[in-house]
Structures are given as C-alpha cells and as structure tokens.
Amino acid sequence: MGIPVSMTVNGKAVAAEIEPRTLLAQFLREHLRLTGTHVGCDTGQCGACTIHLNGRAVKACNLLTAQAQGAQIVTIEGVAAANGELHPMQAAFRQHHGLQCGFCTPGMVMAALDLVKRQPNPTEDAIRAGLDGNLCRCTGYHNIVKAVQTGAAAMKG
Amino acid sequence: MNAPVIGTRVERKEDYRFLTGSGTYTDDVALPGQTCAYFLRSQHAHAKINRIDISKAKTAPGVIEVFTGADLPGSVGGLPCGWLITDVNGQPMKEPKHPLLAQGKVRYVGDHVAVVIAETLNQAKDACELIEVDYEVLPAVVNVADARKPGAAQVHDIAPDNTCYVWALGDKTAVDKAFAQAAHVTKLDFINNRLIPNAIEPRAAVASYSRGDDSYTLYVTSQNPHVARLLMTAFVLGLPEHKLRVIAPDVGGGFGSKIFLYAEETVLTWASKQVNRPIKWTAERSESFVSDAHGRDHLTSAELALDKNGGFLALRVHTTANMGAYLSTFASCIPTILYATLLAGQYTTPAIYCEVTAVFTNTAPVDAYRGAGRPEASYVIERLVSTAAREMKIPDADIRRRNFIKEFPYQTPVALCYDTGDYEATLTEALKLADVAGFEARRKEAAARGKLRGLGYSAYIEACGLAPSNVAGSLGARAGLFEAGEVRVHPTGKVTVFTGSHSHGQGHETTFAQVVADRLGLGVDDVDIVHGDTGRILFGMGTYGSRSIAVGGTAIVKALDKIVAKGKRIAAHLLEAPDADIEFKDGKFTVAGTDRQVPFAQVALSAYVPHHYPLDKLEPGLNESAVYDPTNFTFPAGSHICEVEVDPDTGATKIVNFTAVDDFGKTINPMIVEGQVHGGLAQGIGQALLEACVYDRETGQLLTGTYLDYAVPRADDLPSFKVTTRETPCTHNPLGVKGCGEAGAIGAPAAVINAIVDALAHLGIRDIEMPATPQRVWQALQSAKKERIAT
After folding, report:
1. If you classify domain B298-406+415-466+632-790 with CATH, what class do you get?
2. Is any Cβ of chain A less than 8 angstroms from the Cβ of B199?
3. What is the four-CA torsion angle of B123, B126, B131, B137, rounded to 10 degrees?
4. What mean pLDDT comes out for the span B61-86?
5. Looking at residues B370-386, what average pLDDT do you find?
6. Which of B17, B253, B286 lies closest to A103 in CB terms?
7. Are B509 and B499 in contact (CB under 8 A)?
8. Run of H or E residues at B310
9. Identical fold between B18-138+200-253+258-291 and B482-628
C-alpha cells in the first residue's frame, strides 16, 4: 500500500514508493541513505534534522515525505562544492571549533545558512535568536556564534 | 626545526566528516537483513506484573520475535554495578538484581518489560501496542527526602528503608571538636537538582550474530566499548569475551550517560543469536528522558566552622543521594568516592566529616553526569564559603585567599593528595578578566534602570585522570582504571595510533595526533587516531572523568618512548655508531655531536625492509604498545566569576558576564580546551538556571519528559564567555596535563547562584534553590517583601 513520491534532492531527481506515514527524515536517511540528516528528538525541538525545502530551513522529522512531493530539497550532503571543498559556512565552523561531537552540526549549518540568507549581517543577538530552534549540548554555542558571523562575512565576499 | 604543534590551535581532523554529513553514528549503520527492535516500557513507577500476553503481538505483521523477562535463560545475569561501597558498619552495600527485562515487577516509569523485533520499526511499534500487561499498581517512593520515611514504599525487599548504604569519610571527633570552638558557623541546606544528560544523539545499538564463527558484533553509543564488552560477556550474558566485538563509532555526545551498560544493547546482543539476524534499536527522545541514567539528585545539609578571622576550621556534611530504582554501572561511587573526597576544595580546612546515605526510589537509575560528584562537592563548599563571607562581612576574594592551599604536595583530610596548583594565580586573573574593580559602578548603573546586579565566585577543584588502579581497588572499584595505547609506524613512516580512550566530541583525533606529531617530528596529518573498536584496539577503559589526555595520552607517550628507543637502535646500526650515541630530535636520529643523521621515515623503512638491520638483536617492524596506570589523580582547578542582572519585576536572571580562569596543566590544543570549557559552562549554567528533572511525587510519572518541559540551554539562554588558562604542569605524567572536560560544569553552578544571591542579599535573601527559574526568584522576592512589611 505504498504511495509514490518524487522530488529533487541535492540536485538529483529521486522517486520512490513509500509507506504513507514515512517521515521526510526517515525517507532521507533510510531510503536515500543520506545519513547526514540526524534525528535527535523526533518532535521538532532539537533541530538536528534541519534541511532546506524549497529554499527554506525546515525540520525533516516533522514532515511527511508526501508533503515534500515535487520539492527541491537540500541536505547537508549537498552543501559542499562538487569537488568536496567546504562551503564558507562549513569552513567557518571548522575554523572556530563550532562543533564537537558533530551530531547537531548538520542541522546547525543548515539553520545558519537559512539565517544568513534572511539576515546577511547578523548581530550576536540575532544569531542566538535565529538558532533558537537548534540544540547543541557540546559547545555552549559560543563558537557557533563566532562561526556564523565569520561564515556570513565570507558568504558576502 | 619544526614549528611546535603542542599548544597550538590546530583545526580538527574529524571536522570535515561531521560538517559534510559523512560521519558514521550508530543509527547510520545499516547491516544486510537488519531488523528493528522496540521496547515496551513500564508506564507505572512501581507495579507487580501479574501476566503478560504477547500472543497478539507475536502474530502481528512483520513481527519476528517478542521477548519478555521469562524468555531470558537463567544463566543471564543482571546488569552489574562496578563499584562496591562498604558501609559504616563494614557491610557491603545492598545490591539488588537489575534485570534486563522485568522479572515480575517494574520499578520505574520506563523500566523494560518486553522487546518486539520486527522487519520494520513501524511494525515493531504497532505490535508493541498489542502486548497486554496486567499490572497491579503499587505505591511508589519518588523523592529522595521521602525514601527513608516510615511507611514509605519499599523498592527492593533486600534493602530495608530503601537504604543502599550509609557511608562516611573523615574524622567526626575532630570535626565536632572544631565546631565546639568555632567563632562562627555557617549552615545551609541544599538540593542538588536532578538532571537528565541529553546528549543530542540518542542511545542506539545494532547487534548482529555470525553463526559461521559463533561471534557477535555490537555497534553501540558507548564511551567505553571494552568495558561494555567485559561487563556484558563476563557478568551478564556469559559469552566468551573474544566472541564479541564492540564498536562505538562516531558518538554524538555522552556527558557520562553513555559510560554505562544498559539493558537495551545487552538484550539486542542476546537476541541477535535467537533471531539470527542483525537488530537495530535507537531511542526516541522520550525514551532517552525516561531511561538514560540521570545525574545529581542530592539532599544535603552542610556546616562550615570558622575562626574569628574567617579561617576555616571544619566542614560537616550530611547528604542523601538518590540511586534511582537500580544501581547503574558506577552509581555507588559518585556520591561517595567522587564527592566526599573533594570536600577540601582549594582550602586548608583541617577537619572534614561527610556522611552519605544512598537510597533507592522508583525513578530512573542515577549515575555519573558531567562532573559526577565533583559539581555537588564544589557547590556545597563554594555556597558555604560565599555565605560565610557575607555573614562575616569579609570580601569574597579575601576569605578564599585567606584559606587557599599554598604549599604542594598537599594532603587533604579527605584522602586526596594534591600534587600542584596555584589558586591565587587563577583567582587574581579572574578578578582582572571579570573587571571586578568596576563592578560597583555597573551595579549602580543597573540599579538606576531598576535591575539588580550581583557578582558570584566559585573556586573549584576536581580530581581527574582516574585513577591509580590499586587505590581505586582499595576503595571498592571492581575494575582497573589504566589506559592502553598502541603506536603503529608504517613502512613509509606514517603512523596509526590505537587508543583505549574514546572521543565523542572531545577531539582526540586531533589532540592525540598533535602529541604524536610533536614527539616524532611529523605533521599532524601523518598521524591517524583509531578509537572505539574492541576488534582493533588492544584494550581500553574509555573516556569519562576528564581522563583521556592524562591517562590515555600518557599511554600513547609511553608507547612513543618505546618507538623512539627502538628507532635509536635501528639508527645506530644504519649510522654505524653505538646505541648510546644516538639522539632523536625533530624527526631525525643523529649521532651526538656530528651531522650524521637518518630521518624517522628511513628508520621506519629499515624496520620493515630489514636488509641492513641488526636482526641478531632486534625484531623487524616498528609497532609498540603501552598500558599506563597513573600514580595519582590530577587536580585541575580554577576560579569562575559570574555577573548577573536580575529583573525584580519578572524574576528573570540574565548572565551578563561569565569569566572562567582554569588551570588544566599543559594544554595541547587551546582551541579544543576552550571549547570543552564553554560546553561545561553551558551545562553548569543549565543546572543553575534552567534544568530540572521533575517526577510527580506521588505517581512517579516523569513531568519533564520533553524538550518543552526540560530546558536544555538554547543559544539565546547563554552569554559569550571569557575564558583563559593558567598552567601549573601536573607533576606525575610526562605531558604535564590534568584534563579539562568537566571543569565548566563543576565550577559554574555555585558561581551563578552566588551571583544571584549577591544581587538579592540586601533584601534578606540568603539562598535560591537550583534551577533559579524566574518563578523561584520572583517568589523569593515576594516573600522577602512580605517579611519586610511584617517587620
């Protein structure tokens, strides 16, 4: 009793038949094996599963795959250049030690990219408010804030 | 001369994979033929199970097997506790059986009743709902303060009054005498709030069985895979240890909660043979909340005796500690060995007595959480010291300076011997960095805006680098606490290091590579660090208690010493010189006093292509291992200063400045060290302001079982931090390192609460219970107002 879905993920067309209750995070992780999108809470509160859907940051654990029918999806696997070179935001996270265990990191980077798109020159307060939907238990956010500031500046240059 | 790599901010080697989504966490592992497990958990805090009917679940679509406690063979043991505490009467602690799946009774909400194994997770969940359990609900005992009250529900028949042990440390007579002669006594009662660790990666396991060679492989979110293997095989499942390989791949944070052996991975390992298919289980967050081992949960009464000048004479502490429903792996040693021994803090208090009563309740097991005993000890001391300072009208910095230990080594009255430190230096630096001199002006400026500013101090100490095995053994440890390391030099001179430490965010792949690169004169990229796999690493005790660099790092250094020693003999042969004349520096073996030299890589090649090689004296190859057992703990210490602004209209506290000056001995990578401090501070501030695990006191239902109810700090709850270090090198390990992982969580809570109390003290407020939520602060302000009107 599957339903057909099709969408574009990281620039590639994908199509599958899925159980209707399949969540988008499940579809990405288990059907497409894009395991960079992590599930930390199942309830939209930790943000580890943040991806871009039609250019907007969303939490993939809170969407049914069917809701992404026809959508353009970008996951963390689609952020670096084709040759593997890090995106300036990813590079800024590395430069400032904005990650430790790495589990929240994909969602944090996807949320940061969305934040900078909306606010190209974010202040510290704006970054802290803008990342309110993403939990990190390792870094205390100090270096994440610095990374997002540097990443934002680099994205303009 | 190579550029130095020790003490430099090398970007992390592990970051590329984490930033591109190419890490491998346990839930990312997918084995051919994999099935999914889902656990049925108790919804009652305490109940007798009259009957479990699994017949409908067994025939549900996709279901492969359903197991309950009755299906486990008698040879399967309970989950063991790794530390035996002996009580004040010389009797062993009460150690009730901790079954993998409930045996006739459930004892906390979240306790394991059954497991369903199915083709898909949805099928396993659907089938789980078809299991019928006839519970006879029993009265529950939930709160630590209620556990020993007459008539309280009994969690275990073998533990009367719900008492696991009553344990004591110190000289009671000397303490009583000192109190009788004291000029001033400061007394406080504390609740050290119960916390839920909440690593963002939920616990997970993938177990598989190979019929071909009768062996098992377990991927698991563990901080110490070798310990998990040993406990699981030798103490629970009775399997041959060499037939189980445990892999802890990338692990998304631990903070203590992934040290312990849990029921889920143990049941999965056993069941993988029964179903002869791989099985995966990943906790949902709601399962993490109810079933990960929790932290803290102390009820304490403490008194400090002082002379008329503010000199500390004695400290008396009575603590009741909640163990939860069962003894988790290290539960028993946290409120004893890792708590009472730290009660000297940074001070020369000559007499200390601490009595600890550990109790069982119908709540999730409680065990080590970042800091583990030491945050509780530090909170007791530093809250007492600041309260005494206020009562005696002595400035905070002065009362601390007056009592600081200044000469080392220093033998405390509570067993530990501090090797080195400079508490004056960290305090002085913190006063400067926090601009304490300018505080009164800031306080006035805030008051003009209707806000209350306060400044809080915390001068903490911790014992890390666990531990001399013989000392730990004499205190009840049922394991050694050494660490193993192996350095494998490849024929081209590149190096792979195998360490028994485990990185789940700490950056060992970089820090340890810096140590190796420094010693061998290589680039950091020439060295890879392998961790977390019993199949590749000779042994390991794992990562907890800020022990990795001090113990695991030292094991690697010991192995490197052997590599260099062997390399010298090979070089001597190649250079036709006596062994004793060879020096090794900057990656080159040189005949002393000459320019005759061979590079490290050439020596490595000779070891593997031994055509011109002293085969009569030396084996070919260049691979050495070492096991290091420390001779003492290490003693990181520091001074934290917190500045808060309280809004009296709402009770909301804002941290406007947080300064941490820490002494971790030598630092290998300051960037990583600062990151560890930031993270620790966030958890310490979380405990002080936001986080509280709350159970309903009657029913034992967890009331804070989601991120909406349990407030893990978010980015806009925290300030940017001012952190720096001062170094007094550890005297008993070759790197001079002490460990930095827990400092923030240990120092921060007292600094925050001292700051809030400082802001409110002029209103007659002397204490605020953690977490100091706006509601609690507002209520304290209203009560203070009422009292002032009444008087």
Report:
1. alpha beta
2. yes
3. 140
4. 97
5. 98
6. B253
7. no
8. none
9. no
List all residues 6 or more positions away from B129 whose beta carbon is below 8 Å from its beta carbon.
none
Q: Tell me how close the Cα of B744 comes to any Cα of chain A, in angstroms.
A: 10
Selection from B692, B751, B750, B685 nearest residue B718 by Cα: B685
How far is the alpha carbon of A70 from chain B, nearest alpha carbon, in Å? 24
- C-alpha distances out from residue A81 to A9, B18, B20, B237, Å: 15, 15, 10, 48
Kindly provide the residue ranges of all beta strands, DSSP E only, lying in B223-337, ordered along the sequence: 244-247, 279-282, 298-306, 312-324
Dihedral of CA B368/B374/B375/B377: which sign? positive
CATH second-level architecture of A88-156?
Answer: Orthogonal Bundle (1.10)
Q: Where are the domains of chain B?
A: 18-138+200-253+258-291, 298-406+415-466+632-790, 482-628
Q: Do A145 and B720 touch (CB under 8 A)?
A: yes
B678 and chain A in contact, CB less than 8 A:
yes
Q: Verify cis geometry, omega within 30 degrees of 0, for the bond prior to B409.
A: yes
DSSP 3-state of A16: strand
CATH architecture under which domain A3-78 falls? Roll (3.10)
Q: Which pLDDT does position B717 carry in this prediction?
A: 97
CA distance A103 to chain B (A): 5
> Residue B205 in contact with residue B218, Cβ under 8 Å?
yes
**Side-by-side strand order, sheet with B597-599:** B582-585, B588-591, B597-599
Of B18, B675, B706, nearest to A102 by CB-CB distance is: B18
Residue with structure tokens 């030099």?
B489
Q: Which helix (H) or strand (E) holds A129?
A: helix A124-130
Write out the two tokens for B684: 């310490």
Q: Is B222:B501 a contact under the CB 8 Å cutoff?
A: no
- CA torsion through residues B664, B667, B671, B675, sign: negative
Please give the model's pTM, rounded to 2 decimal places.
0.98
Chain A environment of B17 (Cβ under 8 Å): 102
Question: Does a cis peptide bond (omega within 30 degrees of 0) precede residue B467?
Answer: yes
Angle value at C-alpha B201, between B743 and A123, nearest 5 degrees: 65
Phi, psi dihedral angles at A41 (to 5 degrees): -145, -15
Could you identify the residue written with the tokens 């583990």? Answer: B372
Which residue's structure tokens are 């008698």? B74
Model confidence pLDDT, tens digit, residues B613-624: 999 999 999 999
- Tokens, residue B715: 């980015």
Name the residue of chain A whose CA is nearest to B34's CA: A30
Segments of chain A with pLDDT less than 70: 1
Residue range B120-137: average pLDDT? 97
Q: Which residue of A has its CA nearest to B721?
A: A142
Q: Using alpha carbons only, how large is chain A's radius of gyration in Å?
A: 15
The residues facing B599 across adjacent strands are B588
Instruction: Kindly identify which residue of chain B lies nearest to residue A109, measuring between CA atoms.
Output: B19
**CB B284 to CB A42 under 8 A?**
yes
Report whether B598 contacts B575 (CB < 8 A): yes
**B482-628, which class in CATH?**
alpha beta
Question: What does the alpha-carbon distance between residue B425 and residue B595 come to, in Å, rounded to a whole number?
Answer: 44
| CA gap B256, B371 in Å, rounded | 9
Q: 3-state DSSP call for residue B311?
A: coil
- Where on the phi/psi map is residue B335: left (φ > 0), alpha (ψ -120 to 50), or beta? alpha
Model confidence over B410-425: pLDDT tens digits?
Answer: 999 999 999 999 999 9
> Among partner residues A46, A75, A142, which is closest to B678 by beta-carbon distance?
A142
> What CATH number was assigned to the domain covering residues B18-138+200-253+258-291?
3.90.1170.50
Q: In 3-state terms, what secondary structure has residue B737? A: strand
Spans of all domains in chain A: 3-78, 88-156
Q: Do A86 and B16 touch (CB under 8 A)?
A: yes
The tokens describing B566, both together, are 């062997």
